[in-house]
Design a protein that fits this description.
Layout: H1 2-12, E1 22-24, H2 28-36, E2 40-42, H3 45-50, E3 55-58, H4 65-74, E4 81-84, H5 91-97, E5 103-107, E6 117-123, H6 129-139, E7 143-147, H7 153-161, H8 163-180, H9 185-206, H10 210-218
Parallel strand pairs: 1-2, 3-4, 4-5, 6-7
Antiparallel strand pairs: 5-6
Helix pairs in contact: 8-9
């Protein structure tokens, strides 16, 4: 899902056209869905590698990273930077599995699916400023991104990676309160979600400290 959201966002912003996208998946329905959007879908990773000259995204579960990296290492090197969104897989692990390759590690979050991601990324030892600019522009197509040192990616995971779950629980609790007070569930959930969205926009657009904005409500 995360990979599909990234691709869709990149293409919707006009940064790439669908026929420039190569992707692979072992699950046929995913390949069929990608092909229906005009993407070049395959069940072979080497097809992706041989047709990617700027960036190759590894979007697999951590337990599948070894196999994915082996496929990339065995394929011809087109000069593409390797971008991993596999949670918890360190740059050291990636660089050992992909000797001599330029690597960037990314921590995205699920709002990527609606173009509102908050991503943190860290550069590997061989990654260049050009790689950083490219990857940031691609990530910004589905939200916002910031570069951090790798040892801060755990903090990014705690704030923005896991953060949506806390926000969803907060929205659910507000909605439950509204229902208990007599509102229909759909109305309560809409009001709760829009309240969170509006409050977040106030923080981002005004630059005012959240504590001060809170005091403006409670005064």
């Amino acid at each position: 899902m995360m990979a599909s959201a990234l691709i869709d966002g990149i293409c919707s912003k006009g940064m790439r056209s669908p026929n420039q996208i190569y992707c692979s998946d072992i699950w046929a329905p995913s390949r069929e869905a990608a092909a229906a959007k005009g993407y070049n879908a395959s069940d072979k990773n080497d097809v992706v590698c041989s047709n990617s000259d700027d960036a190759i995204f590894i979007a697999v579960k951590p337990n599948c990273i070894t196999g994915a990296c082996k496929d990339i290492a065995d394929a011809s090197d087109t000069g593409a930077v390797i971008v991993s969104i596999a949670a918890g897989v360190t740059l050291e692990t990636l660089e050992k599995a992909l000797p001599g390759r330029r690597v960037i590690r990314v921590m995205p979050n699920t709002p990527c699916l609606v173009g509102e991601s908050a991503c943190g990324f860290a550069l590997g030892s061989l990654a260049t400023e050009e790689d950083k600019t490219l990857v940031k522009s691609l990530l910004d197509a589905v939200g916002v991104s910031v570069e951090v040192k790798e040892d801060l990616l755990n903090a990014v995971t705690g704030v923005s990676g896991s953060g949506p779950a806390y926000v969803f629980q907060f929205i659910e609790a507000l909605s439950d309160g509204g229902v208990r007070a007599g509102l229909p569930r759909n109305v309560a959930t809409m009001l709760a979600a829009q309240t969170v969205k509006g409050a977040a926009e106030m923080v981002l657009k005004t630059g005012t400290h959240p504590g001060q904005l809170k005091d403006q409500v409670t005064s």
